Amino acid sequence: MKHTVEVMIPAAEIKARIEALGRQITEHYRGRGNEMVLVGLLRGSFMFMADLCREVHVPHEVDFMTASSYGSGMSSTRDVKILKDLDEDIRGKDILIVEDIIDSGNTLSKVREILSLREPKSLAICTLLDKPSRREVNVNVEYVGFSIPDEFVVGYGIDYAQNYRHLPYIGKVTLLDE
Ligand SMILES: O=P(O)(O)OC[C@H]1O[C@H](OP(=O)(O)OP(=O)(O)O)[C@H](O)[C@@H]1O
Ligand SMILES: Nc1nc2[nH]cnc2c(=O)[nH]1
Ligand SMILES: [Mg+2]
User: Fold this and answer.
1) How far is the CA of 20 from the centre of ligand 1 (A)?
2) Which atom of ligand 1 is nearest to the CA of 106?
3) Domains plus CATH for the chain?
4) Angle made by CA atoms 80, 82, 84, in degrees to the nearest 5
5) Residue 153 CB less than 6 A away from ligand 2
6) Straight-line distance from the first to the last Cα atom of the chain, in angstroms, rounded to the nearest whole number
7) Which atom of ligand 2 is nearest to the CA of 164?
8) How many CA atoms lie within 13 A of 78 on its CB side?
9) Max CA-CA distance within the chain?
10) pTM here?
């Protein structure tokens, strides 16, 4: 499909917001004396994780899992599958799930449910982007970078048919009539 990509959130704004999120997270988890793990959902969260973890000034581990619901198109199949699990056990640890975007909520509600069954000490979610108007299932999200309107976005880790993940900004995709 022919389309255009326009800047929606410039790189500098993302950087400033991540610094603020990092301060908030650091303040909350500092001095708890518990092991902390940032859990990134691949592939979308890789760039956000790289920048966020450097702003979290509390000792922590980084682990990743893959839970895929979107194929190559623009809509969720609602069928969330765990394709790659975490490498480490999370029991008794403070877990912060790091995600690029929450849209229908299907991915995060499923991941939150799966990880909570493993009895972490605490479980919270930090998403860079939130599209609240698209929610199909309710999910508690403790940290949100930007609340955005119902636009299809790419960049900063987020793809359209596996393209555009490398863009340093969040872009808005507009489909063109051919
Ligand atoms: O709230 P939802 O409607 O479930 O949508 C959000 C999820 O969809 C995208 O992932 P995707 O499954 O496309 O895989 P990716 O992270 O590899 O891009 C995005 O990265 C979120 O993980
Ligand atoms: N690329 C992309 N993937 C998504 N997955 C859920 N919402 C979105 C979106 O706006 N853009
Ligand atoms: Mg994803």
Assistant:
1) 24
2) 4
3) 3-24+33-69+80-175 (3.40.50.2020)
4) 150
5) yes
6) 8
7) 1
8) 4
9) 58
10) 0.95
Classify residue 138 as left (phi > 0), alpha (psi -120 to 50) or beta.
Answer: beta
Joined together, the tokens standing for residue 142 give: 């403790």
Ligand 3: distance of its center to the CA of 92 in Å? Answer: 25
Residues 94 and 140 sit within 8 Å (Cβ to Cβ): no
Whether residue 17 is preceded by a cis peptide bond, meaning omega within 30 degrees of 0, is no
Q: Per-residue DSSP letters for 106-172?
A: HHHHHHHHHHHTT--SEEEEEEEEE-GGG-SS----SEEEEE--S--EEBTTB-BTTB-TT-SSEEE
Q: What is the ipTM of this complex?
A: 0.97
CA distance 46 to 149: 23
Give φ, ψ of 47 to 5 degrees: -75, -40
For each successive 10 residues of the chain (178 residues), what is the average pLDDT? 96 98 98 95 98 98 88 61 95 98 95 97 98 96 98 98 97 93
- Beta-ladder partners of 9: 170
> Atom 3, ligand 1: which residue's CA is nearest?
104
Is residue 51 part of the annotated active site? The answer reads no
